Amino acid sequence: MMQFLQTEQAAIIQQYAEGNPKLDYDDNEIPLSKALGDLMFGCAGKLRSLEASIGAMVGTQAKIMTDFAKIAQKEHELSPVDSLTALSIRKRIMDDMDKKGWTALQAAREFERHGIKVPESILEEAKREISEYEPPIDDSGISDDELDRQTAEYLAEQQQFHDVWLPQRQAELANIIDTEVEDEVINDDELELDEGEWDDDEGMDLSDFDGDED
Length: 214
Fold this sequence. Notes:
Region (Disordered): 183-214
Order of helices and strands: HHHHHH
Oligomer: single chain
Number of domains: 3
Distance between the termini: 135 Å
Structural class: mainly alpha
Largest sheet: none
Helix content: over 70%
Mean pLDDT: 73
Strand content: under 5%
């Protein structure tokens, strides 16, 4: 529509440029501005009608998309089994809840496993169970008395280590060190004695030599 309007405007302008203006009913020349205004006014109604048509088409398309979404949702909610089979399965699950002591959460999972919508009462009870769930406590650990006994044994062992074993070990190490020192002293004395005997045998005094030669 806009392209048509632009084409008509260009044609009118070209017509006036060629000296062929539009005339009214009395054969009087119509000014170019009025001729263009008449064109716009004449097309205004058509433009409004076109806009209304486009709006209606958009609204119709949106409604179609909404309807498709609703249909898809309904198909998702529909049970994959027929109503009689679904009723039988639902009754069996409810009976198992009583006989086997199932929780609502277990029953809800069973409904979903069969592709059957979970009843609202079961669904609400399952939500409550989830909100109140507490992890199980492991009772297989040691008792408080056993823990106290093991703690006392450990403290006694540590006390024994500090009061008995550690002093004994320190004493043993001290004796070993003293023995090694005594052995080194004895070895030094024997070495000096050997050197003295060598001096006597040779008839020479090593102390007379200071390492300098005259």
